[in-house]
Amino acid sequence: MMTLQKVVVFTDGGCHGNPGPGGWAAVLTCGPHRRELSGGVPATTNNRMELQAAIEAFNILIKPCAVEVHTDSNYVRDGITKWLTGWKRNGWRTKTKEPVKNEDLWRQLDEAASRHQVVWHWVKGHAGDAGNERCDQLAQLAIAAVKAKHTKAELKAGLAKFNND
User: Fold this and answer.
1) How far apart are CA 101 and CA 86, in angstroms?
2) pLDDT-derived band of residue 1, with 50, 70 and 90 as boundaries?
3) According to DSSP H, which parts of the chain are helical?
4) CB distance 18 to 59 below 8 Å
5) Given this structure, which CATH class describes domain 5-164?
6) Using only C-alpha atoms, what is the Rg of the chain?
7) Does 126 participate in catalysis according to the annotation?
8) Exactly one of 20, 40, 70, 72 is catalytic; which is it?
9) Domain-by-domain residue ranges, the chain?
10) Is 111 a catalytic residue?
């Protein structure tokens, strides 16, 4: 029986406005090794960025691992641990028969996480947890970079398109 490498992951996502310019971040540690990831988009929601952070963290892992994910998003933790099975069974519909919001990202997260043994942990955001605080900082820097790269008019147009899609 193969012993899986243990990876500890912290994730966070956020927006300036919801929806608005958004950023995501993940910090992964494996023994003495540490990797920080982040990115952003001109128009999105907080929940999409929380999901993207987790997806990116799993996608960077090249072989199956024992992963402990720490997130301040109950949406992500509850979605993956409590709701996903029912959504899939119901054809990606909620209990009320509505389409699952962010289905595209939920499918990606399900696929990315399926290669690993995962334990999900919720941490209180902005409460001094070093991993969560670092992710928040990286996500905020990613949002700032998006805002610096685009004019206010471009951001407004991107938000209008996002809201109409």
Assistant:
1) 14
2) low
3) 46-60, 74-78, 84-89, 103-113, 130-149, 152-164
4) no
5) alpha beta
6) 16
7) yes
8) 72
9) 5-164
10) no
Residue 102, Ramachandran bin (φ over 0: left; ψ between -120 and 50: alpha; else beta): left
For 7, list phi and psi in degrees, rounded to 5. Answer: -125, 130
| 60 burial type by CB count under 10 A (0-12 exposed, 13-18 middle, 19+ buried) | middle
Tokens of 19: 């929806």
Catalytic residue, candidates 31, 126, 128, 165:
126
- Give the pLDDT band of residue 26 (cuts 50, 70, 90): very high
Q: How far is CA 119 from CA 54, 56, 70, 88, 144, in A?
A: 13, 17, 9, 20, 31
| Mean confidence (pLDDT) of the chain | 96
Q: pLDDT (tens digit, 9 = 90+) per residue, 104-142?
A: 999 999 999 999 999 999 999 888 999 999 999 999 999
